[in-house]
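Sorry to interrupt, but I need a hand with the structure work. Could you write out one complete protein record for me, on any chain you like? Just paste the record in under my message, thanks.

. . .
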Amino acid sequence: MKNLLTLIFLITLSFNLSAQANCDCKPELDFVYAQMKKMNSFKHQVKGNKKTEFENLYQQLRGEMANEMSKVDCFWKLNQLEHFVNDKHAEVYEPRPDYTMDDIFDSTFIKSYRTSDAFKNHPKVGLDLTQLKAQLKSKPASGIEGIYNAGSRMKLGVYRIDTDSLVGVVLESQISIWEPGQIYAYIKETDSPSRFNIVFYGQLYKNLVFAEEQLFENGQLFSTTRKETKDEAYDIVNVTSDEAESFKLTRLNDDVQYVWMNSFNRSTMRKNRDQLVTQIENELNSPYLIVDLRNNVGGSDKISKPIIKAIKKSKAQVYVLTNFYTGSNGELTTGRLRKLKNTVHLGQTTYGALGYGTNYGRTYTSPSGMFTYAPTDMRQASFLPYENEGIGPEIKLGANKDWVEQTLAIIEGGK
């Protein structure tokens, strides 16, 4: 207990020393407040007593703002106001800096970057990281505290600093814009079990991003960030879009065919859509079809709806697979397929960003230029109950065995 209290004290001290008072947050909050009130999601949800609650929250947050505060503290408060409305597509974020991905791996750029204020003033903890690693290795595998692989080039340590708050710190990094001890994420528990609000810095650009109602399950913190103590898990599709044969109908056995659709991007998936629709019309002759929507972060109805129509005409028994990283139009497709009489939904709850959307992609810059606001301009009325919550599967699949194999077993057992 003494070591834990000492650790918390040291963390708190290092946060205070790292805080950079560089943001006049009241104009930023006023900006977000004004932008929110223009959205359909706000007008639809904030009525009657909710209007009073919203105004009270706005005034409360405004009253908590000093003349200047750290950028990350301001960002939290902006998102606290934004989070009042259930609209996961609308977001406040920090724009990316003007360097490129190639710069990140250029030694000349890195040498210059490491002398910059952006690098030297990045929040950092003054802890013994060797001791921290040892403490985190003893944490239960099922809990959120522990050591994580963030992709293949970084390790993070996530530890609790309060009853409902945690921090993610860089333990190791092969990405030279980071160094051990720098803070990667601030994590806050929500009222929903296993759900967290997370402010984090983009791995490649270190710009502030807000992850709302993030699900922690199977040791997975983000889509590419999983506990290193976990065995191989099968809830994530571990291939890149370049490697995947996306939108290709394949045969698993005499009775079952399969397709993985990793995106419904309007600009890149037209050819894939047309090829798949043709395949379904001419080659789908099995009684069962597995539609794998894991990792599908969405796109356009113009891509997904013709595919749904072709599947419906086929009259195959459909088994839909989703994970938490099935979002937006991937979720809409899940819901539309579930409306068919012959569909079974398996896997994991979806992301919960389907009631509202963005058609025009407009963004607005805050008074300081420090933040960007991206509002929504679309509404899917029949899916509003699933906003933030996601669509839960009829059959939940465990992460310790291949999901396609599990689905095949369920199909076989149901014959």
Observations:
- Confidence is low (pLDDT under 50) at residues 1-21.
- Residues 2-18 form the longest helix (17 residues).
